[in-house]
Amino acid sequence: MGTTISRKALRDRGIVIPSVECPLCAIEVETMEHLFFNCPVAIDVWALVVRWLSVQPVNVRDIGDLFDWLDSTNLNAKKRKVTEAVVATTLWMLWRYRNDVVYEGDADDGFKSI
Ligand SMILES: [Zn+2]
């Protein structure tokens, strides 16, 4: 996530943008933590992912919590690699969905396939 730039980060760097609100929920300011972990859309997606992986759900609020959660799962090496791949893919899909909404106005069918 080192190269992803939220709307708030752009505004903080002096770039004029029409809105800093999250394009997915339009409730909060878009930060990386909000977009990937605290947005209602992200929360719903992570709930599905955790259920699909059959792992214990936890309250992940940022990337540090995510790594702490991965470390706490005590998964064997094979399942850990699968879980990491699913987590990385989920983060990427959330970012891609956000970009689809921002640049394509495609808010209706982003996660229908999940
Ligand atoms: Zn949101």
Fold and architecture overview:
With 114 residues, the chain is mainly alpha-helical. The protein has a domain at 32-104. Helices cover 57% and strands 0% of the residues. It has 5 helices and no strands. The chain has helices at 7-12, 32-38, 40-53, 63-72, 77-104. The radius of gyration is 15 Å and the shape is elongated. The two termini are 22 Å apart. The site of zinc ion has 7 residues, from loops.
Condensed summary:
The protein has 114 residues and is mainly alpha-helical. The protein has five helices and no strands.
- Main beta sheet: strand number and arrangement? none
Uncertain runs:
none
The helix/strand order is HHHHH
Rg value: 15 Å
- Strand composition percent: under 5%
- The portion of residues assigned to helices is 55-70%
Distance N to C terminus? 22 Å
Query: Could you report the average pLDDT, rounded to the nearest whole number?
Result: 86
Helix/strand class: mainly alpha
Bound ions, cofactors and other small molecules, one mention each: zinc ion
Gross morphology is: elongated
Q: Report the count of strand segments.
A: 0
The helix count comes to 5
